[in-house]
Specification:
mainly alpha, globular
Length: 255
Amino acid sequence: MQAILNIAKLSFADAIRNKVAYGVFTFLLLLLATASALASVTMGRTELMILDLGLGGISILGNLMAMIITIQSLQQERESRTLYVLMTRLQGRWKYLVGKFLGLAAVLSIQIIIMCAVLAACIDFFGQIFWLSFVQASLMTLFEVYIIIAVALLFAQSSSLFLAILLTLAVDISARFTFVIQQLGEQSENLIVQGFTQSMYYVLPNLEAINLRNQAGYMAHIPWHELGLMMLYAGSELAFILLIASLIFERKNLS
């Protein structure tokens, strides 16, 4: 356990240097520009439009930062040979990935919490919303980013930085359309296509299943037992992806 925590601390310290500030600063500028533009052209309920755009922007920026920071961190440690030094001190390579995940998840959590706080302040300036549903949507956005970090750790083991980012981005996009993929397969008469789409439906994480951004601010909140089931599903997907990544990493030739 101590080895995992040490890896997490190292990953946190490495990723926290300026990267969080850049993401938050970019979001702040975009949010202020969007709010100013909307306030001048909308007639009431400006806060709801800012809420929709803000939560969508947090999701996009959060996922992009998760991909870039995660893949870049692992690739840099490999190039600097730090990874090989760490491997000699760990009894089980899986501890490295779990520690890396915890450290990067902490960094991204700070980033998203700050962005959500900035968004909340901007919304409060223009009007009122159902804040509990906003908090629930923000929480599930965190879980969404955690899943992307795990996916990025899986593909970061590739030797190519570009390929790792491309594959992670492909999974991120596909995971938002798993239901559409399933429907397309059911409409096809080709058994191979049907089998492939069904496999994709069950293998890919369903990010839309934990997406609460569409109803945030418009309704009081979803029932807590439903939120608990969403968190359970997200945690299960996260554990499954980390398990696959660890199994591959254990057998990977690092030389």
